[in-house]
């Protein structure tokens, strides 16, 4: 199937836009790579420190400078259900790597926090910034320069993006992402949402709410709704950074352990010493990023990735923006119905065919690039298989042609929608993103008076006082990364849903985050620039007519221009958001963070370095830039 012209157009635009920073990035990779094992550059005392505590046989291998050393970087903690399974992984990995003659070392841990635990709490204001702290922690783990490949153990919201950003700063090192899998299905997401809405109305007791939540979140593994954590796993599959079909296999099962062992041994194979060298920096390129955006749209994934994918791309010297997301969304069909964009959870999605089915369908439709590098080599179609056990060994076989359940997963010829449901809205209030895949069409346009709130707590006080039984657009201000770290505002979802169910026309506009949990209520989020960066959301006053139009892609305050121009920016006392629960430690993050459309990140694009590596000649395309992806493939073929 020929590549769709819009996909090709957006990809070419990204390549052109990114050329200087991408070439600089690839030059950095080439400069960091050494002949032989990476630890060969260490002095004797450095290396002695690096293997002092290891068993004699492993120590001998490390001293010989022949066999690769594999880093384990893990987000394990046993408070969070998704990360608890990683407790047993290091031993499994070390044993598996020893079987193929190499050594694995636990290089370091990274923090892992959960938006579910911190939702509506002060700790949530550290959540987005934790992504970049995780990237920095990954760099610290790898900074010893001991390693020839790496296994990244992470799964949830900021953890996988943070690990990948850190990994890309060591892009000369091959890397594989190793997930833990989802928990088994508990009560349905629909029932869980119903209990929350009844509690918000005062129709359910706290004990009933607690019982419902405990039945929804009941065991080891990720939450089963399709939020950011499970969107991460879909993207790692599409980007070729998982072994095929690894995302949604349950924890503590024989297949899960076999996949972990296989990932460990494959990491050895793709090291320089393993003969199939495939550094992660040459996997994550412009086409890979476009593929990831396509997968996000095709599955109705989390809007948090309009931040995270931007930051990930920039770590690899690639510049994308919300126009790219918007244009791709218009041509990528929606192939799944997974909560909050349907009733099914990720376990039903997996049973119906899962990520590998989506990858195959997008390839067959010409909506993603097949000519990319993955951990399996060249070609994304290698990832269109599902894993099974043959004894204790994992094997892969072709997918069935048809979906296992067309109410959950469909072929590209019969999609749920002809677009991805993620759109850009813009106007005199700035630029924002909306996820409308779960929003009914009669709510795609809301025009109503503004009600401004400076916190989600202020909104909830008004709701509980019965002051919101009307048509309105809630403008939740001072929620951007500079203001308070851009927390998720999920606590507002049940209240807004109740008001919408009561027949009121409601919407939300905010410079904060909402992600997929916004569900059926129209929400223009990540408004950029935020108020503290001079964003016009600070000019809105109660009673202004606000038009949120997902059909036309507009976000407007219908205020006369002379009145609008005469207004002064709103202010708020944010001191209480900057201290307590460790928030004072992140002051430097708030002061240096980039805009939401630039990933709400803290790391600059790669800068050029001088290189004396000669150009290669005599190829079909003529001269090849040293360190480029083409240069890598050219040298790999020799």
Automatic annotation (TrEMBL):
Keyword Mitochondrion: no
UniProt domain Dihydroxy-acid/6-phosphogluconate dehydratase C-terminal: residue ranges: 408-600
Annotated ranges, domain Dihydroxy-acid/6-phosphogluconate dehydratase N-terminal: 67-381
InterPro entries: 6-phosphgluc_deHydtase (IPR004786), Dihydro-acid_dehy_C (IPR042096), DiOHA_6PGluconate_deHydtase_CS (IPR020558), ILV_EDD_C (IPR056740), ILV_EDD_N (IPR000581), IlvD/EDD_N (IPR037237)
Binding annotation for [4Fe-4S] cluster: 156, 223
Stored Pfam families: ILV_EDD_C (PF24877), ILVD_EDD_N (PF00920)
Free-text remark on how the cofactor is bound: Binds 1 [4Fe-4S] cluster.
Cofactor annotation: [4Fe-4S] cluster
Pathway annotation from the record: Carbohydrate metabolism; Entner-Doudoroff pathway
Single Gene Ontology MF annotation: phosphogluconate dehydratase activity
Catalytic activity: 6-phospho-D-gluconate = 2-dehydro-3-deoxy-6-phospho-D-gluconate + H2O
Enzyme Commission numbers on file: 4.2.1.12
Source organism, top-level taxon: Bacteria
Group of enzyme by EC: lyase
Keywords: 4Fe-4S, Carbohydrate metabolism, Gluconate utilization, Iron, Iron-sulfur, Lyase, Metal-binding
SUPFAM superfamilies: IlvD/EDD N-terminal domain-like (SSF143975), LeuD/IlvD-like (SSF52016)
Function: Catalyzes the dehydration of 6-phospho-D-gluconate to 2-dehydro-3-deoxy-6-phospho-D-gluconate.
Family membership noted in the UniProt record: Belongs to the IlvD/Edd family.
Protein name in the entry: Phosphogluconate dehydratase
